[in-house]
Amino acid sequence: MDRFDAMSVLLAVVEEGSLSAASRRLRAPLATVSRKVADLERHLGTRLLVRTSRHVELTDTGRAYVAASKRIIEQVEEAERQAAGEYSAPRGELHVTAPVMFGQRHLLPVALAFLDEQPEISLRLMLIDRQVSLADEHIDVALRIGHLEDSGLVATRVGAVRRVICASPGYLARRGVPRLPEDLAQHDGISFQGFAQSPEWRYRRDSAAFTVEPRRRLAVNTTEAAIQAALAGFGVIRVLSYQVADELRSGQLRTLLADFVPEPMPVSLVYGMAELLPLKVRSFLNWTVPRLRTGMANLDSTIP
């Protein structure tokens, strides 16, 4: 039995939540996945998983073994990276994550230019509107929007974004322009499942925060759909400044209640603590940080 392979299979089962899901992720037959876990349990002489028809749960012994397995696999991967020369030259696969719209509009152009300069680095860019665990997803660098929790990660700030409330000129001509947050109670709102740390309808006045929501006229599950609905005149939206920069500059949307919005939120590149960063990560940070800072400064100066 290849114990290292069996550990990897067990971790896939735990991370995916079932044997069948692990089978799909590993592109291996379900019987093979089940056999490797069973062989590992026989070798250890203890049960690691409690299997049900739909999912698996770890036993107490299993939890301890999985934690140790993760450390072992990480150490092996680190040794392989060193052996492959990631600490002597910028090369290898770089894993980066960012929110969808920010990644598409601002990070991707910078990253493509970086790849032109570094032919021995390949990039996996995961754009997703939720925070993922760098350790669990094997992420090298993450772009985060919002105040960061003390998680043991290193953060380099590249700028800030504002929350903005806006609507189309056509909607405002029909329904009037709200002058105070309380006026929004008489307006139609467009809500969406956006960035998790961005409260949709929070305001500040005299250093105090409070919430007033418009009447929900439409609810969608993407930022892009909410913006399109606002452009069509269906109501008021609350988004982040970079998400509607072009629409604000062109006058297709108008900013509302600018004096009452909360303080800007920081935008940071975060990565794990390490005594020695792989050169592919250091090279990416050295390339990306100044370019994102310049781009975000220019963006903020051009938004009304």
TrEMBL record:
Keywords: DNA-binding, Transcription, Transcription regulation. This is Transcriptional regulator, LysR family. Belongs to the LysR transcriptional regulatory family. Residues 1-59 form the HTH lysR-type domain. It comes from the Bacteria. GO terms for biological process: DNA-templated transcription. GO terms for molecular function: DNA-binding transcription factor activity; sequence-specific DNA binding.
